[in-house]
Structure formats: C-alpha cells, structure tokens
Amino acid sequence: MLDFFGTIGGAIMTPLYYAVSFILVGFHRGLTAIGLDAAGGWTWILSIIGLTLVVRTALIPLFVKQIKSSRNMQLIQPKVRELQKKYGHDREKLAQETMKLYKDSGTNPFASCLPILLQMPIFLALFRMLDQAARRGKAHGFMDSTLAGQFRDAKFLGDIKVSGTLTGGETGVMIVAGILVIAMTATTFMTQRQLMSKNMPADALSGPYAQQQKMLLYVLPVVFAVGGIAFPIGVLVYWTISNLWTMCQQFYVIRNNPAPGTPAAEAKEQRERAKAEKKGLKTPAQIEEERIAAEADAKREEKASTRTQPQRQTKAQRTKKKK
C-alpha cells in the first residue's frame, strides 16, 4: 500500500520537479552567463527570486478571480445573514438557498483559496528539491547532481549557506533564517490584515465569513512560523518574496478597485474628489449624488404643486344637495 501511494505521489511530483527546476536552472544559467559565479550563493538566491516572480506572474489571472470572489462574498454577507435567520431551523433548506445565492451572484466561495492551493504543490516541489539537494546532493528534474552539489555548498554573506536552516546550529545561518521566518510570518499577517481593515464593508465584519477571515489572520502566520523552522534559506526566500508580491499586488487592487462601502472605497473617493477639485471638475460619484438630489427636489416640487381638484357632481347629487 505504501509503495502504491509512493508511486502515485512520484507521478504527481515528477512533472512539478521538472517544471520548477526548468525555471530555476534557467535563471541560474542565465545569471552565470552574465558573469556571476555558478557556485555562488547570490546566484542561487537571485535564481530563486526569478522563479518566484515567474510563478506569481502566472498566477495573476487566478488572483483576479480571488479578489472578485472575496468581494462578492463580502457584499452578499447581509443576504447570507437574512437566510440564516429565515432558515436557521432547516439546515438543508439553508444550504440550498445559500448555494442559490452564490450562483445568482456569481460567487465561488472556494475561489479565494485557489492561488494558495495551486502554490502549495509548487512550494512542496521546491522545498523537497532544495532540501534533498542540501542534505544529499540529490538531483531532481533538470537540477542534476552537479547543480545540486553547487546549491548544497553555495554561500552568501560570508559563510552562510543557502541550504542552511534555522536548526542548523551555525549562528550566522540561524540569524538569517530567523529574520526570514519573521519576515515570512509578518508579511502573511499584514496581507490578511490589509484585506480585512481596508476592503471589507462594515456589515461584513460579522458572521461566518468574517470569522473565517479572522481565523486565517492568526492561524496562517503561526503555521508558516512553525513550518519555517525546517525550511532551507532558499525556500524561505521564495516564500517571503511571494508574500511581498501578494501584499503589493493586493494593495494595488484595493487602492484602485476597492469593494463598495469599504474604507478603501471612501479613501479612493476622497482622492478622486481632491484631484477633481484641482482641475475644476466633478467626480462620477458627485455627479450621481447631484442627479439623485435633483430628482428628489423635482419630486418634492411636483408634489407641492399638485392641487386636489374638486370632484364633479352629477345633476342628481346637486339637486339633492340643494334640498
């Protein structure tokens, strides 16, 4: 049975080893071609950074879907709470109506997890490839035994090995690895905190979705901090750069395309108003506000000018009245 699962795992991981090593080795050879030392630590660090940028660029379409899904999930939370109040006694009906709401609003509750779920196999392949190269000089994919040996022995900042870990026992390695673990944990926390504080409406800050986000806010950094203890410095570089990419990418999206009714949306409106005032123009929001106000004034004037017309009486009614 173990052999069976080992074979299945190898069949899944082998293509990832080739894909990850192809990009990593490609950057390594390119940097070597322009004069960097093939066995130098900085050559491997820059190669890992290049790998990170390629992977994150490829995941941009999924990140866009993630942002849209997260935004829709935030906006429909009031409706979800209404369904919970209405069908709280009937879980099956509640599940059906909730799924119907997701479908009608074009929301996929699992889309927000896609980027990290797709990154995990890549991360695992990189971790195993670099970890085994560091420990045994083992080859994987396009990273042959020669390159694996170079990575194992590569040093930067003096005598700090790229393959070193926080538990390696060497003071310099432990300091650098510790800094990277803290950076990886902090960027994970800040990214999640940025989403909750800037791009969530006030009425979405309660309920199951908000509780899920709060749990991720504190659980994910702890998971990465504990796991990071065993990561080689090269892997810590990958994940820290990936987190920085996520944080900057999310900041850009939240700043330029925030969810309605959020602090980020208010901040964007204030920036647009300030720019428009300098140019003597009006923002679309101001124009819409003036249109709504004008319509309301027109309705009030129409109501005020309307007079109750006397009802016309028949001849019989007039005769009866005279009598």
From TrEMBL:
Q: Where is the signal peptide?
A: none
Q: Where is this region: Disordered?
A: 262-323
Task: Indicate the segments forming the Membrane insertase YidC/Oxa/ALB C-terminal domain, all copies.
Answer: 44-254
Q: What is its main location?
A: membrane
Annotated GO biological process? protein insertion into membrane; protein transport
Residues annotated as transmembrane: 16-36, 42-64, 109-130, 171-190, 215-241
Which domain of life does this protein belong to? Bacteria
Gene Ontology cellular-component annotations: plasma membrane
Q: Tell me the function of this protein.
A: Required for the insertion and/or proper folding and/or complex formation of integral membrane proteins into the membrane. Involved in integration of membrane proteins that insert both dependently and independently of the Sec translocase complex, as well as at least some lipoproteins. Aids folding of multispanning membrane proteins.
Assembly and partners are described as: Interacts with the Sec translocase complex via SecD. Specifically interacts with transmembrane segments of nascent integral membrane proteins during membrane integration.
- Name recorded for this polypeptide: Membrane protein insertase YidC
Q: Origin organism of this chain?
A: Nocardioides oleivorans
Q: Which gene encodes it?
A: yidC
